[in-house]
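Chain entry —
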Amino acid sequence: MIRKLFPEGYPVEYLGAAFVFVFVYVLELIIYKKIGGPNRHEKKVKEAIARGNVVTAVLAGDTQYLVNAERRNTSSEYYAGYEYEVNGRRYRKVIRFKSSPPETLTLYYLDNPGKPFRKQKPADIATLPMLIVAFIAGMAVALMVR
């Protein structure tokens, strides 16, 4: 049916692939927004603050500096141990940083003080994985039309 709309030799499979690519990508964006998307983490932080589940953690002094030798570039990582106290009980959390870790850090938790999280920048839409899935769907259509 689609071949009848276009002259002979026109690459119809590419048109179908482009349509499926756009359709799948828009569908992924809608689903991503419905499940909370980048605002999900912000909601967790606000809920922890509302419950009063905010602690200040202090650097424990055992920071490790690791050079990423596998990639052969200058990127490095720090692993820092932090200690904090909730209701008289001491907890410890190891956190990874891309730069030198701060002396103190504000941590949040919802129900379990042993599983804290820190406030992060709002996440951008996970564009690359969604583009890859849309591209694969488009290519599958292009191969099926042939």
